[in-house]
Amino acid sequence: MEAAGTWWCIVFCPNPSHVFASLKPALQPRECLLNLLEAAGRRSWDGWSQRWVESKHKSDYGKFKLSAGKFYGDAEKDKGLQTSQDARFYALSTRFDSFSNKDKTLVIQFSVKHEQNIDCGGGYVKLFPAELEQSEMHGESEYNIMFGPDICGPPTKKVHVIFQYKKKNLQINKDIRCRDDSFTHLYTLIVRPDNTYEVKIDNSKVESGSLEEDWDFLPAKKIKDPEAKKPDDWDERPKIDDPEDKKPEDWDKAEHIPDPDAVKPEDWDEEMDGEWEPPVIQNPDYKGEWKPRQIDNPDYKGKWIHPEIDNPEYTPDSTLYQYDSFGVLGLDLWQVKSGTIFDNFLMTDDEKYAEEYGNETWGVTKEAEKKMKEQQDEEDRKKQEEEEKKRKDEEPQEEEEDDDDEEEEKEEEKEEEEEDEEETPLKDEL
Predict the structure, then answer these.
(1) Model confidence pLDDT, tens digit, residues 187-240
(2) Annotated binding residues, as ranges?
(3) Is 408 contained in some domain?
(4) HEC sequence for the chain
(5) What confidence tier does 9 reach under pLDDT thresholds 50, 70, 90?
(6) pLDDT at residue 420, rounded to an integer
(7) Which of 110, 190, 249, 377 is most enclosed, with most CB atoms within 10 A?
């Protein structure tokens, strides 16, 4: 654990397979950052699989591979961990020096790229306590925080923010929509010691608030007074019927009346057709159901509000944000269609640095990534147009060939008929 008054930062990037931890005096955080980045920049992806552990809890977990994907901003900088097998669960994790976020801000940040136009699958990370046995990590393994995008058809396109509290996994009570295109996006979760939080996508705030208000960590502060009852004479009606209003005597008119212009047909036979009745029409004098006019209710007291009292089961907790042990970062998820790339993992207590680091990694290559994708899309479009043109050009030729075949068949039939005609006289002579 870090000593009091220190600054800490754990970087899994520019390549997410490497973990770098640093403790420096709080007076010199920037020097720590520069040294950390320089160290990270000199490292390569060599041996990444030795630093990440594949769970053996199941034998058919999907495999990750190192890739920048089909399109990217930089072939090396954009390399990350990519899911490679469809319809699989994935369980991969990496360990770092254990720490607690007591009395400190916690920033969790990483980038996700669903270049496969994902239809159903997770893009989130889990932070586990240090005691996790990585080789046995699975979907039910106890974690501290789960954060990141999850997509499954049109109904589910959300950012999960789940905290484990007293052995329960608590989902946020708000709906945070994730990005669902095929480009790389940066996801950031900030948890502060004052029990507030912030969620950012692409370094822009999309949600924030209070842990206590936006999750069900604690029972409600107030509850309805079980002893309170609405008085029997409490009138909640703002309007009432005017007792002085009376229905007019000529109000009751039938909705439909016989058509006065209808004439019995001349050929109508009552013995055969029955008694003739004129058709009915809408009554022009029909006024509908009569209702007395409304007036203000002199006894109106407003809507009765159930009085509340302090909840005897509520106990405040100033440490909702706090976890005693973080030691493992894991990718524990399911994907129907593989191809997601995870990169630029970062954990720190410096919000400003996290923003800068995001701009220096994801931010540097995002535009070039989009440009490459646009070029590929344009090439694909031209290729499709050429194939379509080629197909259309071949259609007349095929029709001509079919016509030639028909002509040949007709010629053959004609020759056969002529031969038959020549043979017929010979038979007669015989």
Answers:
(1) 999 999 999 999 999 999 999 999 999 999 999 999 999 999 999 999 999 999
(2) 124, 126, 143, 150, 332
(3) no
(4) CCCCCEEEEEECCCCCCCCEEEEEECCCHHHHHHHHHHHHHCCCCCCHHHHCEECCCCCCCCCEEEECCCCCCCCCCCCEEEECCCCEEEEEEEEEEEECCCCCCEEEEEEEEECCCCCEEECCEEEECCCCCHHHCCCCCCCCEEEEEEEECCCEEEEEEEEEECCEEEECCCCCECCCCCCEEEEEEEECCCCEEEEEECCEEEEEEEHHHHCCCCCCCEEECCCCCCCCCCCCCCEEECCCCCCCCCCCCCCEEECCCCCCCCCCCHHHHCCCCCCEEECCCCCCCCCCCEEECCCCCCCCCCCEEECCCCCCCCCCCCCCCEEEEEEEEEECCCCEEEEEEEEECCHHHHHHHHHHCHHHHHHHHHHHHHHHHHHHHHHHHHHHHHHHHHHHHHHHHHHHHHHHHHHHHHHHHHHHHHHHHHHHHC
(5) low
(6) 63
(7) 110
Predicted confidence (pLDDT) at residue 58 exceeds the cutoff of 50: yes
Cα of 377 vs its chain's centroid, Å: 24
Give the CA angle between residues 143, 119, 15 to the nearest 5°. 55
Q: Is residue 162 part of a domain?
A: yes
Q: Which residue has the higher pLDDT, 30 or 308?
A: 308
Q: Report how far residue 197's alpha carbon sits from residue 199's, in angstroms, rounded to the nearest whole number.
A: 7
The domain tally of the chain equals 1
Residue that is written with structure tokens 């701009």 in the block: 359
d(CA 115, CA 71): 8
323, part of any domain: yes
User: pLDDT band at residue 253, thresholds of 50, 70 and 90?
Assistant: confident
- Give burial (CB, 10 Å; 0-12/13-18/19+) of 393: exposed
CATH code of 85's domain: 2.60.120.200
In this prediction, residues 255-276 reach a mean pLDDT of 89
Structural domain of 362:
6-219+318-377
Length of the chain: 430
- Positions at the binding site for an alpha-D-glucoside: 124, 126, 143, 150, 332
In a domain, 84, yes or no: yes
